[in-house]
Specification:
Helix content: 40-55%
Order of helices and strands: HEEHEEHHHEEHH
Structural class: alpha+beta
Number of helices: 7
Shape: globular
Largest sheet: 2 strands, antiparallel
Radius of gyration: 22 Å
Strand content: 15-25%
Distance between the termini: 61 Å
Number of strands: 6
Low-confidence stretches: 20-37
Length: 165
C-alpha cells in the first residue's frame, strides 16, 4: 500500500475552512446588527447616547461625556454619567432624563422611521430631551418642532420595535 498524499486536498480544505470562518463571522455580525437595530434604545458601540450623560443635558445645558466608571444598565442599554450625582438622579427616575424615542432621531421619527443620532444635536422641549441625526437635521426639526413632536409621538409606538436603517 502506498501513502496517500493530502497535498492536493490542502487548497480545497483551506477554501472550505475560510468559507466557514467567514460565514461564522458574518452570522455574528448580522446578529449584532439585528439586535441593535431592533432595540428600543439607540445604542452605538454598546452605549446609549454614545456614552454622553443624559442628566447633564438638563443640569449643565450641554452634552457632557460620561465616565467609564459611572455606568448604569437600564432598558437593555448602558448609560454613562459624568458624576455620581447624575447617575443617582437617573437611577431614581430614568424616564425623566432619557431621550425621547429611545434616543433615535426625533426628526426621523416624525417622518416615520428610525435614524441614528448625534449627542451634540439636541434640544429640551417641555422638560424632555430630543436628539437628532446631526445639526442640520436639528435645524429642520426646530422649524416646526411641536408638529414634529406630535407626529413622532404618534409614530413611535408602531416604529419602536422595527429595524432601523
Amino acid at each position: 500500500m502506498g501513502d496517500i498524499s493530502v497535498e492536493p486536498f490542502i487548497p480545497i480544505l483551506r477554501k472550505k475552512v475560510m468559507k466557514k470562518s467567514i460565514m461564522f463571522l458574518i452570522g455574528g455580525l448580522v446578529t449584532c446588527v439585528h439586535i441593535s437595530a431592533q432595540s428600543n434604545i439607540f445604542i452605538k458601540d454598546g452605549k446609549a447616547i454614545n456614552g454622553y450623560d443624559a442628566v447633564a443635558y438638563f443640569t449643565e445645558s450641554k452634552p457632557v461625556q460620561g465616565k467609564d466608571e459611572l455606568v448604569y444598565s437600564w432598558n437593555n442599554a448602558r448609560w454613562y454619567f459624568s458624576s455620581q450625582q447624575n447617575l443617582d438622579s437617573f437611577k431614581v427616575v430614568p424616564e425623566k432624563y432619557a431621550p425621547q424615542y429611545g434616543g433615535y432621531c426625533a426628526y426621523g421619527l416624525s417622518e416615520g422611521h428610525k435614524a441614528p443620532t448625534s449627542p451634540i444635536a439636541w434640544t429640551i422641549v417641555d422638560g424632555k430631551l430630543y436628539l437628532n441625526y446631526n445639526s442640520d437635521v436639528l435645524k429642520l426639526w426646530s422649524k416646526d418642532r411641536l408638529e414634529r413632536i406630535e407626529k413622532a409621538d404618534k409614530n413611535w409606538p408602531e416604529i419602536k420595535d422595527k429595524k432601523s436603517l
